[in-house]
Amino acid sequence: MIGSLRGTVLFKQPPDLVIEVNGVGYEVQASMSTFYNLPLEPQAEVIIYTHFAVREDAQTLFGFCSQDERALFRHLLKVNGVGPKMALTIVSSMTGNEFAQFIHAGDAQALSRIPGVGKKTAERLIIEMRDRLPSLSPHSETSPSKRNAPATPFTLKPADEAMNALLALGYKPAQASKMIAPLEDQALSVEEMIRRALRSSLN
Q1: Total-model pTM
Q2: Which domains does the chain have, with CATH numbers?
Q3: What is the chain's percent helix, strand, coil content, to nearest 5?
């Protein structure tokens, strides 16, 4: 079991990260909040908390900026019908506190706006997650100042990178394009563009 990685970022293109640890590059599927909190300095050390998923056809590392976010991801995996991709999309679409609010309010409509989460899955999440959420810390959210920090430049335009990230999270091309279009001329970083696009999908 690989529980965490401490190293430097070799590559980042949401939701993919490559973390170099002692000369070995680990491919990680990371949550969006993890990208929001990557350090700006080149070669800066990062600590990523991981979940190692093994299937017959794949072995995948999923990465998170906090142990509480990873705990939420693992709780989601226990819900019938929720796999790693859907769980990563859920934790990328909202904070743990926001998710808890939707669950305790029984807001299936808000949850069903997340890609891949239909009405039945949203209702199942509400039923099965209510008793699991109290174990999650309400004080583990990352600070807005870190989330809004600009990212290091990418090869593609920020809008293209943000579009690719939304597609990887399960949004359809037309839907992702509609979410990104109003943000293209605002000189936003990739991470901030993704964050705002995801927020808009919940409204």
Answers
A1: 0.71
A2: 4-64 (2.40.50.140), 68-135 (1.10.150.20), 154-201 (1.10.8.10)
A3: 45, 20, 35
